[in-house]
Amino acid sequence: MRRARPWVTGGYQRSHDFSYIAGVPGRRDLTLELPVRGEFSLRAAAEFGFGPREGQREPFDGAMRLAFPVDGGRGYAGATLCHRDADGPVTVQLALRLDADPRAALAQVARVVSLDHDGVPFGRVGQVDPLIGALQRAHPGQRPVLFHSPYEAAAWAIISARRPPAQAARVREELSRQLGETFSLAGQERHAFPQPEHLLGLGDQFPGLNLEKLTRLRGVAEAALDGRLDVSLLHELGPEQAYIQLQQLKGIGPFYAGLIVLRASGFADAMLPMAEPRLLDRAARLYGHSGEPTVEWLGGLAEAWRPVRTWCMVLIRLAGDSGTVVP
Question: Quick one: pLDDT at residue 166?
C-alpha cells in the first residue's frame, strides 16, 4: 500500500477545478476537456521526442496517446488527446484501470503536455527576447512535454544510465509489458509503466538489467511509495531543494536529478545550479556569446525569461545545429 501523503495535484490544482468529476471515481471511460491558455500545438507535443521515445517519433495522425501509472500509486490510465479547434480546449478520452482517480489522471495529462500553466506569459517573453521569439515561430505552439511522473523519470534514469537510449527504451517497454498495463488507444497499443508496488516485486533477474540496476530500481519504487517522488512534495520543496533531495536516491546524480526536476515535475520557471554542456553551448552559439558559457552566464540571460525559464530552455535545446543569432 502507498505510504505517501494525501494526493494533491501540485501546480494544476491552483488553476483548475476538478469538482465536476469528483463524483465519478468508479467510471472506467471518460471524455473530458483541458482548457488552453496561450498558443499550443498538439502536433508539436505528440512529435516531441525525448527519453524513452528518443529516436522513435511517430507520424502525427491527429491524436496523442499516453499510457501511465496514475499519480498516487493506484491504477493506470490511457489517454487519447485531440485538438480539433485551435481556439478551443483539448479533448481527453480517458480509459481508467484498477480504481484510478480520474482527477489525478487528468491533472497528470495536463502536466505532461504543459497545459497546467497559462501559456500567455511565454508569448510575452518571445516579444521581449528576439531569439526566443524566433524559436517560437520556428516551433509554433511548442511547450515542454514531460515524463509521466517524477517516479517514471527516476526509473528511466536508472534504466538508461550508461546505455544507448534505444536499448534502454526496449528494456522499459518490456518492463511495462510484463508488469504494467496495456491500452488500445485510437487503434494503437500503448503499455503503461508499472506502479511502484509492482516494480518493487522485481527479482534479481530481468533481461537487460544487472543486479545493481535492479536494486536501484527497487530503491526508486520505495521512494515513490514513501511519497518522496510526489509532484506535490517536490513543488513544496521548490526546484533547488528538490534537486538536492533527489540526489539522495542511489543512482541519481546531478544530471538525472536535474532531469527529474525540469522534465518531470512541471516547474515552468526553474533554474538549477547545473546545465548540460550541450544546452550551454547551444545557448552561447544562438546568442553570439564569445566567452566560456557558464551556468552563471545562462542564469543572468534567463532573468528575461521569467516566469517561463524552463520553457525557454527547452526551446533552446530543440534548436538545430544552425540557428538564428540575435543581432
Answer: 87
319 band by pLDDT with thresholds 50, 70 and 90: confident
Task: Choose the weakest-confidence range: 5-9, 138-142, 154-158.
Answer: 5-9
If DSSP states are collapsed to H, E and C, what string results for the chain? CCCCCCCCCHHHHHCCCCHHHCCCCCCCEEEEEECCCCCCCHHHHHCCCCHHHCCCCCCCCCCEEEEEECCCCCCEEEEEEECCCCCCCEEEEEEEECCCCHHHHHHHHHHHCCCCCCCHHHHHHHHHCHHHHHHHHHCCCCCCCCCCCHHHHHHHHHHHCCCCHHHHHHHHHHHHHHHCEEEEECCEEEEECCCHHHHHCCCCCECCECHHHHHHHHHHHHHHHCCCCCHHHHHHHCHHHHHHHHCCCCCCCHHHHHHHHHHHCCCCCCCCCCCCHHHHHHHHHHCCCCCCCCHHHHHHHHHHHCCCHHHHHHHHHHCCCCCCCCC
44 lies in some domain: yes
pLDDT digits (tens, 9 = 90+) for 74-113: 999 999 999 999 889 999 999 999 999 999 999 999 999 9
In a domain, 217, yes or no: no
CA atoms of 154 and 249, how far apart (whole Å): 9
Q: How many domains does the chain have?
A: 1
Q: Would residue 33 count as lying in a domain?
A: yes
The confidence band for 201, taking pLDDT boundaries of 50, 70 and 90, is: confident
Kindly state whether residue 67 falls inside one of the protein's structural domains.
yes
Average model confidence (pLDDT) for the chain?
A: 88
Structural domain boundaries, residue 20: 10-116
What CATH number corresponds to the domain at position 26?
A: 3.30.310
